[in-house]
Amino acid sequence: MANNNDKAGASSYGDPEDPRTIISRSKFLTGATVGLGGLIGVAIAVPVVGFVLGPSFAAEDWYWASFGPADNKDFKAGTYEPVIFERGKLGELDRRVAYVRRDGAEQFTIVSNVCMHLGCPVQFKTTNFACPCHGGQYDTEGIVIAGPPVRPLNRFEYKVEDGTLYVGRPFATQDVDGKVVMTDTFKLPGAPVGGLLGWLYPTPA
Amino acid sequence: MSTLLPPPKEIAMLPVDWVEERSGAISFGKHMLFRNVPKDISWLQTLGSALITVFILQATTGIILAMYYQPAPETAWMTIQWITNEATLGWLVRGMHKWGSSVMVVLLFLHMGRTFLFGAYKYPREMTWITGAIIFILVMGMSFTGYLLVFDERAYWATIVGVNINGTAPILGPALSYILMVGPEIGTNTLARFYSLHMLVLPSAIGGLIFLHMLLVVRLGVTSPPWSRMEPTERDV
């Protein structure tokens, strides 16, 4: 090794102990440029992608909307009364429609008007819910009787406090042997609930 | 004096020569515009140029609309009403943008149909076809995101249906819907996201892909129609 010092280093190529034999200067610089460039790319991409996607999966703001006195005579047994309410503080954009049916003094069935095909608003017509967009039909319980919807209409959670009816979030329902069973998750229109198909459409947040 | 100055034509060309000497832009432009094409091409091969023209029209009118449009739920519809009914020539610019979008989709179908029926997607032009197909998908994205910006009842419900159609894809569908709407339902951030996609993300992607598409068209040349009677060697110029 000592002999190579007076020949400006050039003769040490091929010497297994010389680092330049393991990797040449230009290869090292190419690798360093690509590697550092990649690191900088990742350092920029992580916050950008996180910021783009994060808010999409954040917990949603819903509040308990007051529907007035629970003994309201408009809420009748055997038929539905539409109630227009606001689910949050965005005004017109937060306006939703719930169909309220009385099952007892403080017992209600509160059905969402969002069609479970692709999200159009359904309307109650004496014996069934009907969707104007693609012809989905539901019976009085919200179970699909015709058309393309994949599951029964969503139902809202509700509570009665000091004689006032409050309505909260909508939850997906499942048709179990002709009876509507409320699940504990929200699902988008068009996403089936239960079984293999339900597993294929996971709720993202 | 007259012997000292070059003729007026040469003086007029001085700035052009200055640019050409430093950038080669003039010879590049001549290479693009005066390249050889097969002699049996027809008006059918002008649909691509028509599309670039409509893209420039959409970009220009879109930039002007962005000067007055405010993408918030409270203001979106009102500013569009102002553009249409109050602003000088606003009805014209908005009308050009609105009808131009339909013209672009129609021309895209014709251009793709022509390419397909002429077999112009075959070797060696596969990459031209692939970049064009990506442009087609992005233009569909432009139509979808632009539709919501009017923010009237039709825009709102059409977007709900469109987003839920995305959601019917298994596994990733629901997540895609959440990403598009910024949550499980249309809210304040949905409009801003669609606006950002419509005026920044998608147009720059389309612009870059048109550039690539054009580079490939110039590099590989134009195909003769399938009924061409020219010898194969004559066709590729």
DSSP, total strands of chain A = 12
Low-confidence stretches of chain B: none
Please tell me the overall pLDDT of chain B.
93
Number of strands of chain B: 0
Structural class of chain A: alpha+beta
Strand arrangement within the widest β-sheet of chain A reads 5-6-7-8
Q: Can you tell me about this structure?
A:
The complex is a heterodimer of chains A (205) and B (237). Chain A is α+β, with helices and mostly antiparallel strands and 205 residues long. Helices cover 19% and strands 28% of the residues of chain A. Chain A has 3 helices and 12 strands. In chain A, the strands form 4 sheets. Chain A has a 4-stranded antiparallel beta sheet with strand order 5-6-7-8, with no helix packed on it. Chain A has a 3-stranded antiparallel beta sheet with strand order 1-10-9, with no helix packed on it. Chain A is elongated, with a radius of gyration of 31 Å. Residues 1-7 of chain A have low confidence and may be disordered. Chain B is mainly alpha-helical. Chain B is 71% helix and 0% strand. Chain B has 10 helices and no strands. Chain B has helices spanning 8-23, 25-33, 47-66, 76-85, 90-117, 126-149, 153-167, 173-181, 188-220, 232-235. The mean pLDDT of chain B is 93. At the A-B interface, loops of A face helix 7 and helix 8 of B.
